[in-house]
Amino acid sequence: MKPLSLSRPDAGSYPDDAMSRRLALAELKERWTLLGLTLPGFALVLLVLAVPLAWLGWMSFLDDGGAFTLANYVRLLKPVYTNSLLTTFQIAFCVTLACVLLGYPLAYLLSQVPERTGQVLMALVLLPFWTSVLVRTYAWLVLLQRQGIINNTMLDLGLIDQPLSLVNNFFGTTVGMVHVMLPFLVLPLYDKMKNIDPQLMSAAANCGASPAQAFRQVFLRLSLPGLASGVTLVFVLSLGFYLTPALLGGGKVAMWSMKISDTISLFGNWGAASALGVTLLIVTLLMLWGLRRVFGIKGGY
Hints:
mainly alpha
């Protein structure tokens, strides 16, 4: 009887080593090609973003004579700066909340109406982008002043006995900023809502869910990524807003951006202004991290 022999399987059932090497080299070449294509963009980002930020951080530790100091950051502990930072975040939070309360129903309406009607409504949403922020801010200044249209109308209707203080305060600043920031929340939210399959709501209803339950458990959850993008965009832009608070605040609303401008234009202290900018950047990054944790999004916006 012949001894048993372990026969080698057909070579065709195993990947060819040469072919594997060629595929690996082709994949490596493709990666290097993609890296080469991204280098110009990476260099541009490094030039216009990373380098100025590094310079800003370096300047924040220098005094007027160019010596290393921590005085620029110690100065930020004064009440005038801490109160300004608190006011900045209060306004940013109020503006973001108002945009959510106004923008979510508006985006939902835009996503549910017929396409032609939605296009008309979307044009109205985008209309403020065609007008300068300065013009819109002055328009609100005219509307909200003590002798403005709003106060005069309420006086004529007998709703109030004397003009209300609607401008040169926190309220006027918030109203003007909400008008500017609202489209920035509606657009990403509308894009996400438009891509939600309407049949999912019908499926939830067929499973016994009420309209409110179907909306909360299906539509709202699926729209959260768009809401997170809009909230992040509005909140971050509000933190650095300058023109509208400067005009509608009437000097009574001191935001952090205004402190940076005053530090440079009035005192010429680049070190202190840099410390203000670095502090705002760090706090903003911490807030973004907090927003990501709240919305539970792991892969970014």
